[in-house]
Amino acid sequence: MTTQALRDAWRHNVLSPMAFFGEAVLAIAHGLPARWRFRRADFARVLADSSARALPIVLVVNVLVGAILAFVGAVQLVKFGAGIFVADLVAIAVAREMGAVITAVVMCGRTGAAFASELATMQANEEIDALRVLGLQPVDHLVVPRVLALVIMMPMLYAYGCAAGFFGGFLVGWGMLQLAPQAYLDRSLMVLQGSHLGLGVSKAVAFGVLVALAGCFHGLHAPRHAAGVGLATTRAVVSGIVGVIALDAVFAVCANALGV
Question: Of 71, 73, 119, 232, which one has the fewest beta carbons inside 10 Å?
Fold first, then answer.
């Protein structure tokens, strides 16, 4: 690979995302507290797409993940007569890790892909150029509302996903281990701490920003043809999922260092 090719790859893969992230942060900060320039109708539409319409898939996936965690834990814990500790496993794992991560992965495949495809289509139809000609910044009108929507909705979806995961674990504990519902609930509430939920909410907010920025970045930088829409969508989903896993690893290291 030539030196020029290395420079182009560095510019496209590192410098462009960093510049885009900085531009988005400045646009959000400049709009505080009530000077954002996007249309309220567009923001309401994005909120609806990122919240109520995502509830069924978030529910199904998190119930199944909670049930899988409980089943895997039950297979081992029953051997030692410690079946009740399945409640501990599910409650802590879902609150600290799986609730935020699984919800973020689902939103990458659903909402992040939708952001990328919509903006890539606008790019192919030269609608982004039309905004610039009119003196309107695409980041202010297209990126900021999507980032704000996921920042607002991801903590709520995380709480919803946690409840679904707890319910999935409860179904396995009740049906497979014959645990009393009250005993399972008491054990779950006993082991859950505010630090677990606080860590999960922090992850949800960070993942929401990441998913929105990944979708918007690849949508705005998509090639100007039909195949570019599919390429942007694929890149948004892949980079979003990889970014969520990598960021979760950073959170794990920091939480361990802080003793959370």
Answer: 71
Token pair for 147: 């980032």
The residue behind tokens 């089943």 is 71
Calpha distance 160→201 (Å, rounded): 12
Q: Report d(CA 27, CA 21) in Å as an integer.
A: 10
Contact in structure between 221 and 142 (CB atoms under 8 Å): no
Q: In angstroms, rounded to a whole number, what is the distance separating the alpha carbons of residues 27 and 176? A: 52
Evaluate if pTM is beyond 0.85: yes
CA atoms within 13 A on the CB side of 254: 9
Of 81-85, 95-99, 104-108, 129-133, give the lowest mean pLDDT range: 81-85
The 3-class SS string of the chain reads: CCHHHHHHHHHHHHHHHHHHHHHHHHHHHHHCCCCCCCCHHHHHHHHHHHCHHHHHHHHHHHHHHHHHHHHHHHHHHHHHCCHHHHHHHHHHHHHHHHHHHHHHHHHHHHHHHHHHHHHHHHHHCCHHHHHHHCCCCHHHHHHHHHHHHHHHHHHHHHHHHHHHHHHHHHHHHHHHCCCCHHHHHHHHHHHCCHHHHHHHHHHHHHHHHHHHHHHHHHHHCCCCCHHHHHHHHHHHHHHHHHHHHHHHHHHHHHHHHHCC
- pLDDT tens-digit profile of 146-184? 999 999 999 999 999 999 999 999 998 888 888 888 888
| Residue-wise pLDDT tens digits, 111-131 | 999 999 999 998 888 888 888
Cβ–Cβ under 8 Å, residues 74 and 173: yes
pLDDT of residue 95: 92
The CA distance from 235 to 68, in Å, is: 29
